[in-house]
Amino acid sequence: ILLLNSMAGLTLNQYLHQVKNALYQGTGDLLAASFSFRNEHVRNFRLQIEDPEPRTQGRFQSPYDEMVNAHLRAIFYISRNNLTDCFFNHLQCLQAFNKDFETQRESNWALPLMVELILDARFLALWAAKQVYSKNEGKTGEILEKAAGGIMTCFRICASDTRTEIENSKRWGMLHIVNQLFKIYFKMGNLKLCKPLIRAIEGCNIKDEYTKAQLVTYRFFLGRLEMFENDYEAAEKSLEYAFQNCYPGSRRNMRLILIYLVPVKMLLGKMPAMFLLQKFGLVEFKDITIAIRQGNIRLLNAALARFETFFIKAGILLVLERLKTVTYRNLFKRVAHICGTHQICIKAFLHLLQYLGETEMDLNEAEFICADLIFQGYVKGYVSHAHSKVVISKQNPFPPVSSVLG
Description:
This protein is mostly helical.
């Protein structure tokens, strides 16, 4: 720690000497700190050099001369709050690193440096994209794509290292890379690019030996992807793993996982306990939970409208809209219970819908809802259009919701 903190006051020559020693000794952690934007040396004015080549010439072999020069320029630009030029110079640093990384046979000593470079690539890309958004919205996508391209090169190098002994394999870096790419692809809204990454990890012989933190992040994004693909049972399993194995002290991350796990469980007919929503400050789901249990479509619509911005930002509004069908199912079940017969008058269902705010709904629309519930498997029975009735099965007319969407 003392060694890393001492970088804050290094002269340029001292910094270059430190990088050279780390390279000579193969000290990945020290080299990673020497190129990290989270290290104090980034704030060192002695290292903020716009044109470093004349002062570093002859000090390193290629491609580390390119890396050092690009890093020093990136430090200069971030000190001037020019995040775009900072990012593109850091990307040049990452690309130079990949040239050497690919040639390192049966060795993974440089993995700490790779991890730091791709982590900073993502952060700098996001910051640069945010800075240029107001001026050139189209350039934000270009920046994120460039970052993903540089990081993907690292992934290919690691994934192809299949013949090295496992302890020296670069494959130990695969899951970290995948998690960073997930974050970029989700930000870009280009989820189809996640599929090849998932196949690579699922086929990796050490997939269960990665760190718990990496696996939690992976399963979190995997669960979100499965949710968007309507594979709710798989999504529940992935998100449940992420939640149960998340570091207990990270309340923010646990809350973030629940934002996706709660809707998935709701769609499977598993309502969250109120104390859980209160504990993690998820008041947005409180009325939704009550509405589904009661079959109260008015309360559900009001809750969706009230927190629409939150749900849109989280990307779960369309998923929550599917809960209307579950709410209709629970409401129709209440009507059936009140009628006490297996022949339910659709008018009775319509009157209750109108009472709950669906004032413009007519008999045909109510009949359509009943037919849709039967078609999707929420209700066992058939619609008698001639008699405006729904005839429900005498045995298990309302199957568990989990059996419908599972």
